[in-house]
Amino acid sequence: MASYHGGGFIGRDCHRIGNNSDAICRLLLMELSEEYYMAFKQAWLLWNTVRKPVNRVAFATADEVKQFRADASAFVPHLQGALAWMSIFPKLHLLLCHAADFMQMYGSLGLYGEQAIKAWHGRYAQSARKYSLHSEQAAAVAFMHAMALARYASEPDLARYGPTRKAAAPCARKATRVGDARVRENREEVPVCLAKEEKSEMDRKKWAGDLHESAAKTMGAYARKVKKSRTR
């Protein structure tokens, strides 16, 4: 996945893939019938309207919540109607069927991303010994209580996460001579490893082949299911 698209399907990488969905659709044109091509293209268009408010760290207006609800409500029926063999997994169900309610109630989705929760979980794991109580929930409550009372970073935290380098003097990192290596154009190009490029190309082809094979199996199973239901 990372080799094929140059990144994952979360955060900025997800938006970068969505912004280049036209290129993906052009490639699909050579593989799909016109009916399925238009269905996939419409799915991309709908998804590009749904994905934008998800990671935005800001409060949404009432009109934006209303528009997000309408876009999500249009996306699900399209997937179920035009691409009926696709499965709606739990996270997608939550995003498309319940995220609008969450946004309306709390004002945002990006402000409540799980990345911050994961960071707090790591912080708690480091301090678990200090707050070992009769249950995991009680220990978590004690940890959060202590953090709320402190309201400032402790000395070990400042030493660990604080800046360790002094600020550079004014104009210290600016190029002053012709041919200065601080300028990007004057730096030597890093040689490209041919073996690494060949491996990446092989990984991309294998990923695409496996994806097509899995899609063919899914669509075949769905076609057999529909045919079987019609003969009953």
Walk me through this protein's architecture:
The chain is mostly helical. It has 11 helices and no strands. Among the domains are: 112 residues, no CATH class; 32 residues. α2 packs across α4, α4 packs antiparallel against α5 and α5 runs antiparallel to α7. 5% of the residues are buried.
Which terms would index this structure?
232 residues, mainly alpha, disordered N terminus
Summarize the structure.
The chain has 232 residues and is mainly α.
How is the secondary structure organized here?
Blueprint: H1 2-5, H2 11-19, H3 21-28, H4 34-51, H5 62-82, H6 90-97, H7 99-106, H8 114-126, H9 136-150, H10 155-161, H11 194-231
Helix pairs in contact: 2-4, 3-4, 4-5, 5-7
SSE topology string: HHHHHHHHHHH
> Rg to the nearest angstrom?
25 Å
Which structural class fits the helix and strand makeup?
A: mainly alpha
General form: extended
Q: Would you identify the regions where 5 or more consecutive residues have pLDDT less than 50?
A: 1-9
Mean pLDDT: 76
Span from first to last CA? 41 Å
Q: What kind of sheet is the major sheet?
A: none
Q: Which range does the strand content fall in?
A: under 5%
Discrete helix count: 11
- State the total count of DSSP E strands: 0
**Helix residue percentage:** 55-70%
